[in-house]
Design goal:
The complex is a heterodimer. Chain A is of the alpha+beta class. Helix content of chain A is 16%, strand content 40%. Chain A has two domains: 36 residues; 104 residues, Immunoglobulin-like, CATH 2.60.40. In chain A, strand 11 and strand 12 form a beta hairpin. Chain A starts with a strand and ends in a 5-residue tail after the last strand. Chain B has two domains: 252 residues, Cytochrome Bc1 Complex, Chain C, CATH 1.20.810.10; 217 residues, no CATH class. The chains are: A alpha+beta, B alpha/beta. At the A-B interface, strand 1, helix 1, strand 2, strand 3 and strand 8 of A face helix 1, helix 4, helix 6, helix 8 and strand 1 of B. Strand 2 of chain A pairs antiparallel with strand 1 of chain B.
Chain lengths: 184, 517
């Protein structure tokens, strides 16, 4: 019994030709591997663009201040839970607006996370902007009891192309500030 | 010729091209799984070498990679390139593997499990590559870290901004220790586990590519590594957002989506595609035939069917019917592919047995029992006319050979060519057929994995049940082909006819006055 290959190489198809085809196939395969491992290049910023990154952690103000419980309210509670004051845990949502040259670039409204909405928020937002001189203005409201911004920040900045500036926040040191990013 | 969908037609043409240059044994498309394993081995070995020189610290990582790339270009540099390109080649191979299964409709029915588990396994490979890019800690590493963090931050159970770590100066060396642990140990371990699950429903899982193919692939990888060594971008700089990046699209293609969609939407898109791919085997579902059935009164517990089952659907247990044999086999219907290979394995599937009664065997296909096969042979023998009476035996999954049927050719299509007990061929010849042409899936590409291989081994005597010596090998021809190779089949039949004519003439001249029976 004689088994014939699926596709006969034929008399003309000698080993040299067969190996030449193999080299061609390997070359084609590796060319695809090489090309898509680095090409085509991806442009994440247009020519002359920079990035303003708004990123901070902050625990907003409580929605309601602590208050003294009335006698009636206390009597409705089990004896072991009759505390004289009630302090709701829910925190206010945080509203942040970032303007560049008076133009609103982003407005973020973030609810406090957690089952009781009692945790601090984490903000991370990147905005692509043209490089050059800009007037940066950031405002935040973190207290539902207050009308308008609770924090304001203004600064003239100069951005180089591809530069990233980080707008950070620390309530203990007065609010927003420009964080100098480390070079690594 | 029956209808063949265009995707399958294109795939079969590519496969034929590779058969032309590599032959069926080395055809990369028949070895995509083992080839992916081979690339993983290259990745593992090169990765271990790179780890010797890699500094797992924030300030030292990039410098150590630069040292390997430039100062020690001849060893670590080449290893780095091998590591990169073998990882990419593995993705290409896996994608081709998926395309192949899709094009050949080998992802539905009983194969759903391998497809279903293969999709998340691909994601595990991709995430392994992603953590590898972080470790270089160049501009691309920072980009990947930053955007990966944004994706993680969008998950509902995350309540802190991981991405802040990459802008707020909070990053420490511990981050690199964690990443190195993930990339070197955690992820590979999970990947090995996922691959184990992926092949769980298969037996005889091959993980070693043919030596020629492995050597060729390695030489090609090495040549690429020397011709275009892998290099880094500039060092990670958190003050900077690099405008143009040379992304590795095999691993990082998801990140540009974040420029067009929010992280949540990106999750929805990727999870949506993943979910869709995972449920593809049911769109629409493919019905698998009835599972094989064991007939203990004809089973001697030889276990050959359990040894031959390509889908691990037959197990062996202690005898339950009180017969004198030690064991019996049990078919697990949910695993059975209904290929019938077990019928071909069973020594009781011998058409010379029970000649005047219903032929029964130890394990049989309820919708196409061995008795029907023998009856079909008997009927064909009685109907064949002419000088070269041929029976063509093939399978339902390769080329459509029904069109060959004529007065001197009768066809018999089985579920798989491995379903054919070798004694069937001997039986047909003894009944007076001039020749038996056996066809089936292309060599190396059996629809049910091992039908061709088992048949070859039964014919060359290395696997039970064997084709006995008394069967005239000159009157048996094997021609394997895909659905698109019908023209070749006709020319093979014509050649076979000539061969049989010569044999008949020779026999007639040797035995004057005695016609060939």
């Amino acid at each position: 019994m004689k088994q014939k290959p699926v596709i006969s190489l034929g008399k003309l198809m000698n080993k040299v030709l067969r190996y030449t085809l193999q080299v061609f196939n390997y070359t084609l395969f590796m060319a695809i591997v090489w090309y898509f491992s680095i090409q085509p290049p991806y442009r994440q910023l247009e020519e002359g663009q920079a990035v303003v990154t708004l990123s901070f952690s902050h625990a907003a103000e409580l929605r309601e201040a602590c208050r003294r419980m009335s006698q009636e309210e206390l009597l409705k509670l089990p004896p072991n839970m009759r505390l004289p004051t009630s302090c709701p845990r829910e925190r206010s949502p945080v509203t942040v607006e970032l303007f560049l040259d008076k133009k609103l670039m982003t407005r973020q409204v973030v609810e406090a996370p957690g089952l009781h909405q009692d945790q601090g928020i984490d903000m991370f937002h990147r905005i692509k902007v043209p490089a050059g001189d800009h007037k940066l203005r950031v405002s935040m409201n973190d207290d539902v009891k207050v009308e308008g911004p609770t924090y304001r920040f203004e600064k003239d900045i100069t951005l180089q192309p591809e530069e990233q500036v980080l707008v950070d926040f620390n309530a203990n040191s007065g609010g927003f500030y420009i964080n100098i990013l480390p070079k690594r | 010729m029956s209808y063949i969908n265009p995707i399958k037609r294109v795939y079969l043409a590519i496969e034929a091209w590779f058969n032309l240059s590599f032959g069926s044994a080395w055809n990369p498309l028949y070895n995509l799984g083992t080839l992916a394993f081979f690339f993983f081995w290259v990745v593992l070995i090169s990765g271990l070498y790179l780890f010797i020189f890699f500094d797992t610290s924030l300030s030292g990582a990039y410098a150590s990679v630069e040292y390997m790339t430039h100062d020690q270009w001849y060893a670590a540099g080449v290893m780095r390139s091998l590591h990169r390109y073998a990882s990419d080649a593995a993705i290409v191979t896996i994608m081709l593997h998926m395309f192949r299964e899709f094009a050949l409709d080998r992802y539905r029915g009983f194969r759903w499990f391998s497809w279903f588990t293969g999709v998340p396994t691909l994601w595990m490979v991709i995430t392994l590559g992603i953590t590898g890019y972080w470790l270089v800690w160049d501009e691309l590493g920072l980009y990947v870290a930053m955007l990966s963090s944004q994706l993680v931050d969008a998950l509902p159970f995350m309540n802190s901004a991981m991405a802040r770590n990459f802008v707020g100066g909070q990053l420490t060396d511990r981050f690199f220790t964690l990443m190195a642990f993930l990339h070197l140990l955690g992820q590979p371990l999970f990947l090995v586990f996922a691959i184990w699950i992926h092949v769980k429903r298969l037996s005889f899982v091959e993980i070693t590519a043919p030596i020629g193919l492995s050597m060729g692939s390695f030489i090609a990888l090495l040549a690429l590594s020397l011709a275009a060594p892998a290099v880094s971008h500039g060092p990670a700089d958190m003050e900077k957002v690099t405008a143009v990046l040379n992304l590795d699209w095999f691993y990082l293609a998801v990140y540009p989506l974040l420029d067009y969609f929010t992280a949540g939407q990106t999750w929805m898109i990727t999870l949506g595609i993943t979910f869709f791919m995972m449920i593809m085997p049911w769109l629409p579902p493919k019905k698998t035939g009835h599972a094989a059935e064991v007939h203990l009164d004809h089973c001697n517990g030889c276990e050959q069917c359990a040894d031959d089952c390509p889908f691990d659907a037959i197990s062996v247990q202690a005898r339950t019917d009180g017969a004198r044999y030690e064991n019996e086999v049990v078919v697990h219907p949910n695993l059975c592919a209904a290929c019938g290979i077990c019928v071909g394995s069973c020594p009781s599937s011998n058409p010379f047995r029970q000649k005047n009664e219903q032929l029964e065997t130890g394990i049989d296909m309820p919708q196409f029992p061995i008795n029907d096969i023998r009856e079909r042979i008997n009927k064909a023998v009685s109907e064949l006319l002419g000088d070269t009476r041929i029976i063509v035996i093939g399978c339902d999954n390769a080329l459509d050979f029904a069109g060959l049927e004529s007065s001197d050719i009768k066809v018999l299509s089985l579920y798989c060519i491995g379903m054919m007990p070798p004694t069937i061929v001997e039986y047909a010849l003894q009944k007076g057929v001039d020749g038996v042409l056996i066809t089936g899936c292309r060599t190396g590409d059996c629809y049910y994995r091992y039908g061709n291989k088992w048949m070859d081994q039964r014919f060359d005597g290395s696997r039970r049940p064997i084709l006995r010596g008394r069967a005239d090998r000159d009157r048996i021809k094997v021609f394997r082909a895909a659905e698109t190779d019908c023209k070749n089949l006709r020319s093979e039949v014509a050649d076979f006819r000539k061969q049989l004519q010569k044999l008949n003439e020779a026999e007639t001249s040797n035995q004057p006055g005695q016609a060939h029976e």
